[in-house]
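Per your request, structure below.
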């Protein structure tokens, strides 16, 4: 019998929710991540639709405009809904938008809000009794206007009950790439990040960006960058804070303090994040046995690697490989219905 070709994966459907007052930057981020065809670089196909209550062009700040190509009813067919932030963060969203978001959440569709888009989800009542994050400068405003929301002050993004919120501006890119990574794998997210000339993920919190008096130029910045590069080229080694501090010529306490001020996270948490990312790539690209993946990425044992995958990714290395290995027949996502 002739060999049958594996059919290409059905495109994942992304709905961009638009209405007067949404931020042009966030619209651009969503469009850049999901609206560009990168299938020639191994990125799965996406269908991005610009949804709105009417077909009328929506004015954006800076003389731009957005032309919707679907009504809000299309949200019922989306695999993911993304809500941009707002130019004026207290702008009330149209009731039709809020109703559509409530229906989509009740249906179980994941919804992500960038930056001040958390206010839109809060207006819909979707964040009541749940955790959320927004730009650090808007944290008090979100708490005041929506006291039923548990506002997380310093995360880059937060997930609670199929709802995602992100901190300000660049953190929206972090969240969008994270959503690609958790659905389609680290390699797909890395390919998009390379195209955008940005990091595929950042560690730390937005605390590192909160406004404070500008310090003198940090003479240790280059040293810390060199230490991080040193650790990345030797991930298999069992690094300790004391050893990394010695590389920087600092005491462990001083090194840890400068490292957290620079990156927003501790040296060990940063190192674990790098090891997880390296393990993801090996699981996607190679058939190496799991103990060898653990050894090469510095976890030491498959058990330790499995524990960190469970904590940080909510899955096991074996299941991750099954979902995202480049030769796997499946795509790791549910097949959406036909006719985008």
């Amino acid at each position: 019998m002739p060999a049958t070709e594996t059919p290409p994966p059905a495109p994942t459907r992304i709905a961009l929710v638009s209405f007067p007052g949404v931020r042009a930057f966030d619209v651009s981020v969503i469009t850049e991540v999901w609206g560009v065809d990168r299938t020639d670089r191994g990125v799965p196909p996406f269908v991005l639709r610009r949804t709105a209550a009417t077909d009328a062009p929506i004015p954006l700040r800076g003389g731009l405009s957005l032309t919707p190509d679907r009504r809000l009813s299309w949200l019922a067919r989306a695999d993911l809904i993304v809500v941009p932030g707002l130019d004026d963060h207290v702008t009330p969203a149209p009731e039709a938008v809020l109703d559509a978001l409530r229906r989509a959440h009740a249906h179980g569709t994941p919804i992500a809000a960038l930056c001040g888009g958390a206010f839109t989800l809060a207006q819909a009542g979707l964040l009541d009794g749940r955790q959320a994050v927004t730009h650090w400068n808007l944290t008090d405003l979100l708490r005041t206007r929506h006291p039923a929301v548990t506002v997380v002050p310093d995360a880059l993004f937060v997930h609670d009950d199929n709802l995602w919120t992100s901190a300000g501006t660049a953190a929206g890119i972090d969240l969008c790439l994270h959503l690609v990574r958790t659905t389609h794998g680290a390699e797909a997210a890395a390919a998009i990040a390379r195209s955008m000339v940005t990091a595929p993920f950042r560690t730390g919190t937005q605390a590192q960006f909160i406004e404070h008096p500008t310090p003198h130029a940090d003479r240790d910045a280059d040293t810390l960058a060199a230490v991080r590069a040193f650790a990345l080229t030797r991930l298999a080694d069992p690094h300790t804070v004391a050893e990394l501090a010695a590389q920087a010529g600092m005491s462990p306490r001083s090194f840890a303090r400068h490292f957290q001020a620079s990156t927003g996270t501790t040296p060990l948490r940063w190192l674990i994040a790098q090891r997880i990312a390296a393990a993801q790539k090996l699981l996607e690209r190679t058939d190496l046995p799991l103990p060898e993946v653990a050894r090469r990425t510095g976890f030491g044992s498959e058990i330790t690697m499995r524990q960190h995958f469970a904590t940080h990714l909510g899955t096991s290395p074996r299941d991750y490989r099954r979902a995202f290995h480049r030769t796997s027949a499946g795509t790791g996502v549910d097949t959406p219905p036909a006719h985008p």
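The longest helix spans residues 267-285.

Regards,
D.
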